Amino acid sequence: MSDVSNNKYSNKKHLSSEYFRHHSAIAGFTLIELMISLVLGLLISAAVIQVYIINTRTITVQQSASEVQDSSIFALQTIEDNVRLSNLGNPVTAINSTIKHGGIVLTGSNIGNSSYANTGYLTVSAGQTGTVGDKGWTGLSNTNTNSDQLTIQYKNITSNDVNDCEGTKVDSGSTEWVVERYFVRLATNASTTPALKDLVLACDAGRVTATDTLVDFGGNGEVMIAAVDQFKVLLGVQTDISNLTYITPKTYLELTDKPPITTVKLGVIIRSTTPLLTDADRVSFTVLGVTNTLKADATRTKYYRRSYESTVLLRNARVMNIVATQPKLVSTTTAPGGG
Which residues form a coiled coil (predicted)? Predict the structure, then answer.
């Protein structure tokens, strides 16, 4: 009997030992271990998120800067090439506001119709008064200064066909004068409500017929730069033999004696189309020597912006200056006894 009792006691002891050994093997983390794991996990997650945010911001800035750079390099270069055609085909190389078919269209006289006064299709600048016609220049900008408009004119007398700024072919030897105007307008379907509007730099092309009639192709022009805030123009005039002065079209028209125009300076503020993740960007820019400040708007600093300037020499507007100088007499000496 005692042997049986001892065996039962031994078996219970063995089962109890096995139970506790098994229970110890499947035991989980303690509360302290869980808290430490949670803190470490949060720290690692925060670090990963921080790295992701920094990388995303960097990529966004790089993409925005690339967009602005592409616009400045390719779009501005195209505009420069077109502006260099100004006055092509005109037998008169000097450009001013009175010469017929002058390369820079400032007045109706430049298109052969002195009574034409629709400033919406002429080269105009901020502060200039006059009637702005249908689809004409209105001075839109996103800064505290109105934008300008540049209108050029040329005739394709070359041996090759060319395209105007809207992509329409201009045949070689065409008798029509091509007119192109560069201006700022609202983007298609853009809202007029915000202070900072969605603006583009566009070009509208037309023709001056043999009867000196300006014919516009209609429409709002082709987009040259997809996102701009400002477009400014200065005319380079030769006041004397050695001095070149840059003035606004408005100032030029107010001059009594209008000197020939030989160069054009263009200034733009280009913005990205991709918004930034941070709003810490510039709000003031210098364009052609004048400070332009963005209008107050909640979204004004959400984009990458830079200002660019370009000087275009009008190769078809050469001015020749003839300077008369008094001849100098070369003194000679005769040796003693010479004949």
Answer: none
In angstroms, how far is the first alpha carbon of the chain from the final one? 170
- Taking residues 177-193, what's their average pLDDT? 92
Distance, in Å, from the CA atom of 336 to the CA atom of 339, rounded to the nearest integer, reads 9
**Can you read off the two tokens belonging to residue 207?**
């023709």
Check residue 325 and give its pLDDT: 53
Enumerate residues 6+ apart whose C-beta is below 8 A from 231. Answer: 141, 147, 148, 149, 182, 183, 184, 201, 266, 267, 268
Q: How many C-beta atoms surround the C-beta of residue 271 within 10 A?
A: 28
Measured CA to CA, the distance from residue 262 to residue 256 in angstroms comes to 18
Give the closest residue to 233 by CA, choosing from 196, 193, 264, 200: 264
The CA distances from residue 231 to 111, 124, 320, in Å, are 24, 12, 31
Rounded to an integer, what is the distance from CA 216 to the centroid of its chain? 25
Bridging pattern class, strands 290-293 and 284-287? antiparallel
Q: Which two tokens stand for residue 277?
A: 């993740």
The predicted-structure confidence for 23-54, as pLDDT tens digits, reads as follows 555 556 687 878 888 888 888 888 887 776 66
DSSP state of 87: T
Q: What angle do CA 315, 205, 254 make, to 5 degrees?
A: 60
Q: Which residue type, as a one-letter code, is found at position 66? A: S
pTM for the full predicted model:
0.78
